[in-house]
């Protein structure tokens, strides 16, 4: 009797699993799907895409003297190491600034597995950066002291407690904690990974962050366009549209204190939950002497050395059985360039028996169908898509376009059951507001020459389609077949990898209840059908 009860219980569990995998929630095995455009939510369209003012308590400096602030955790390339970053001292802005001495404050983290036993110590390095505009009447900026400390020798899937700061100055942080990623392996995955782009610091951004926190992520991926400090002049005057409002400035200005505002607002989340960032166009922030990306490169820690890239613009890391590749569209992506060579080497070293899932992210999407930035990254796609396809990338995440879109499996603009699923989540909530127009809407197809971003490429690469229903045209006359679902709403996504083949993707809209999904699908790796190159094998093999 007991045997039959046990047998029945197993049967029920199997049925439940079957329903959850293939019941009400669709899977990519059911695709390709007919394209769906969710209608614009007129009431929630604008939302509250207004930047938090400097008077908001959440962005004001609360630290005294050289107490740590803007504390964050980032991953290294493997689960046994993380970076802790923070800032001490006050930034300065004005015509007469004096950079702080980075060596004047030590960079120390005490950490351990018990709250009362911070028995280990790690020492890192510190720096300051300046944003200088050599023009009459402009204000210059110099940062507080930015500290980065790498903790090593950590156990996987383990919570560690820490304090950071300079004990000799009597300025250590409050107690914080983080959890390391599970050990790399086909059966180990972080529970939930939050993914968003183009976050900014508006009241919509705060809603996005609140929704993310309610989903209790183990890791946050921020796919470029972080603070939108470059929508401001150096005197702090801001605009929703920089080029509309400030078209007579000799250089594209930025107001760097907004980086500090962003760091303070995000500290409650980022001091406990690791963040991995990759650059967007709004991090470019040109200053005098053609320096760019200084805030981005200085404020975040990247596993660049650990992953062999030696660049803050592209790197890779493992999170359990997932290998993440972070790429940079705003530096050379040509096959003859350093990034491409690094990517080839990194892909060739991925052992899919250890990290079955291969996920790539970069800022500007290849398969967005919105009018904004339509086919803007085509030069990058032409250089890199074949390589990513050959190695069997499972999912691509992008930002840049301020909306949500999920593709069918696609390669070279053709439906392909072994191509990646491309997901755009540039819907974090920044003050530039939502993208709502589609390139296939009547009269909305842009002039191909207008689609070039000079920061992305010197060339215009997007041309008329040569095959398929849109042959001879630059845009489709309806939602393209490679676009499965699109909607212009603010939100974020959560990726839950369940095993070697199933991952649950949910997109959460800010206007919904916390636990409601606007789009949900199981992304399924078809390991018996799709052939790709793997580690140590030059020939294409069955995985
Ligand atoms: Fe962008």
UniProtKB/TrEMBL annotation:
Q: Which InterPro entries match?
A: Calcineurin-like_PHP (IPR004843), Metallo-depent_PP-like (IPR029052), MPP_PAP (IPR041792), PAPs-like (IPR039331), PAPs_C (IPR025733), PAPs_N (IPR015914), Purple_acid_Pase-like_N (IPR008963)
Q: Where is the Purple acid phosphatase N-terminal domain?
A: 68-180
Q: Look up keyword Translocase and say if it applies.
A: no
The enzyme class is: hydrolase
Q: Which residues form the Calcineurin-like phosphoesterase domain?
A: 192-404
Q: What domain of life does the native source organism fall in? A: Eukaryota
Q: Which residues form the signal peptide?
A: 1-22
User: What GO molecular function annotations does the UniProt record carry, in alphabetical order?
Assistant: acid phosphatase activity; metal ion binding
Cross-referenced Gene3D superfamilies, in alphabetical order? Answer: 3.60.21.10, Purple acid phosphatase-like, N-terminal
- The EC number of this protein is 3.1.3.2
Q: Which UniProt keywords apply?
A: Glycoprotein, Hydrolase, Signal
Q: Reaction catalysed by this chain?
A: a phosphate monoester + H2O = an alcohol + phosphate
Keyword Phosphoprotein attributed: no
Record domain Purple acid phosphatase C-terminal: where: 474-512
Q: Pfam families, alphabetically?
A: Metallophos (PF00149), Metallophos_C (PF14008), Pur_ac_phosph_N (PF16656)
Q: Which family does it belong to?
A: Belongs to the metallophosphoesterase superfamily. Purple acid phosphatase family.
Q: Which PANTHER family match?
A: ACID PHOSPHATASE RELATED (PTHR22953), PURPLE ACID PHOSPHATASE 13 (PTHR22953:SF15)
**What is the protein's name according to its record?**
Purple acid phosphatase
Supply the source organism for this entry.
Carex littledalei
Task: Recite the lineage of the species.
Answer: Eukaryota, Viridiplantae, Streptophyta, Embryophyta, Tracheophyta
